[in-house]
Amino acid sequence: MKVLTSYNKIFKRSLKYNEEISSLLVNLYQGSSQYINAYNQLNTLVSLDNDKQLTMQNISYILGVQSYNKRNYNQAIQYFERSNNFPINSEIYFMSCFWLAESFYKLKDYEKAISIHKKIAYISNEKLNEYVINQKYNNAYCFFKTKNYKSAIEFFKIFEKNSKDSVYLNDSFLRIADSYFMQKKYSKAHKYYQKALNFNLFDSDYALYKSSIALGLLNKNLEKVSNLKKIVSDFSSSIYYDVSLYDLANYYKNINNYDLALKYFNQVIDHSIESQLLSGSYLGKAMLYLNNNEYNNALDNFLIVANKYPKTKYFKEAISGIERAYTSLGKIEDYLVFVESLPDYSLSKHEQDTLIYNTAFIKFSEKKYQSAIEIFKKYLDDFVDGNFYIDALYYSAASSVELNDSSSATLYYNLILENSDQKFREQSLIYLARKYYNSKNYSLSNKYYLDLKEITSSNSLKREVLIRLMHGYENINREKAASYATQVLEFDKKDDWLLSKAYTIIARNSYDIGNYIKSKIFMKKLHLFHFMKKVLKQCIIMLIFLF
After folding, report:
1. Do 546 and 509 sit in the same domain of this protein?
2. pLDDT one-digit tens code per residue, 433-474
3. Rounded to 5°, angle at Cα 19 from 40 and 76
């Protein structure tokens, strides 16, 4: 090798000898795994024949892998791109693109990684089958990182269908679930969190907690509570342990289970060191005491929040609670002294949000709806980003309903639906759907009932939704009406009116699409309902035509 190197220096100006000696050196370097020397020697050549291009492709790929393994991703990228300049061997080209995309991923250049993945997205090779499958997983992660959740789901599902690696499948299920969650498709998110839980390899506490949030948004609160309790019982070292206790406390607080709410708030206080959870728990306890007219206990807990956690998001609520507690105890002077003792505290700014909302809500609770709505309006005008903005919209709507002001109620319920907060979404959809249905504006009632159909867990509401969608589409889209009519026929309980309505809609649609046999079957069933004279008359005409 030394002799050839010396000769190469002597004859470097002779193209003939230089080419021959360089070729020999490349072979020697490659044979002795001196890939960097072989790579450098190849780069001295003016041109590369097919064999040397293949050699360059292979050596550049090997050097790229070595650099990748050393976490020198920028250098790895240079080698892989050099290898890809000579796509002689398709298998090497695939592998080079595979690791090139991974190098860009490691550097967080996800868009570039995606562009590389596109080049090999549809390559199939039995020898490289494992890498072909894993490429879908890697590509999916790139989409996930760029928040392209639709594409992430697509590629994770391709991976799911082809992989048998339980570890990667477990992770894929979590990311699919996360992607659905970010798309607000909570039912599908829950399904895939459950798939990950069935594997039970890792991050089960994460899957349980995220699933509990999804279930809560779907109003499946019993399942939500079950998940949270499993975290508490089985994952005491989990980072989700404290927040699960906190969520349980708030759940029981919201359903007025005083004892269980206190129990879980106290457990948070005993175990957690996180200021937001601690302040939230003290506040939760204080509110429980306040609502139970235990004003001294309420005041003690409100004061803990105000004095120990002034920088948390619960501080302003605690100040408002202190006002209510002192007021209820008849100690308003003590409240004023307390306010004056607060450093850098201004009632004109820090307190107005809660004070105005609470004042309005008290009026609402007293059924003084006109006063309530006037104060709520001031709140909504002054606190667009207020802590209780969505609540103010809801109670403004509810007050408007009590005052028979349907136009204002409609406005407020629509504003709730436009807000990203899911709170009061179901109530808003119910009101709007029923309003437009009762006024026979079926185009709009259909719109709201369709949205309601996606989130309701109540069997009675599901029944209402299907019946009214059937009726709502009757003169708008007979095919859709027939689809809902078919679902209505599956109800356990059906009165004669409901049966006759469903039969009529299915018969008409079948007639419209030329399915005369089916139409005739359902029209004959209508003869059982003698009160449907107008419909029967139409059916007789249609039957005569069919015969």
Report:
1. yes
2. 999 999 999 999 999 999 999 998 889 999 999 999 999 999
3. 20
**Domain presence at residue 225:** no
Burial of residue 488 (number of CB atoms within 10 Å: 0-12, 13-18, 19+): buried
Q: Same domain for 441 and 491?
A: no
Last residue of a domain, one of 445, 472, 499: 472
* Three-class SS of 349-416: HHHHHHHHHHHHHHHHHCCCHHHHHHHHHHHHHHCCCCCCHHHHHHHHHHHHHHCCCHHHHHHHHHHH
pTM metric for this prediction: 0.57
18 within a domain of the structure (yes/no): no
Say whether 216 sits in a helix, a strand or coil. Answer: helix
* Distance of alpha carbon 522 from alpha carbon 489, whole angstroms: 12
Greater confidence (525 vs 237) lies with 237
Distances (CA, A) of 93 to 61, 66, 85, 125, 155: 9, 16, 9, 12, 21
Residue 356 CB partners (closer than 8 Å, separation 6+): 375, 378, 379, 382, 383
Q: Does some domain include residue 538?
A: yes
Does residue 296 lie in a domain region?
no
Provide the H-helix boundaries in 183-294.
186-199, 204-217, 221-234, 241-254, 258-271, 275-291
SS3 320: helix
Structural domain span for residue 543 = 480-547
CB of 174 within 8 A of CB of 214?
no
- What total number of domains does the chain contain? 2
Residues 501 and 547 placed together within one structural domain of the fold: yes
- For residues 476 and 221, give the distance between their C-alpha atoms in angstroms, rounded to a whole number: 36
- Enter the tokens of residue 269: 């206080």
Distances (CA, A) of 212 to 223, 296, 382, 417: 7, 34, 35, 23
- Return the higher-pLDDT residue of 379 and 296: 296
Q: Tell me how far apart the alpha carbons of residues 239 and 374 are, in angstroms, rounded to a whole number.
A: 44
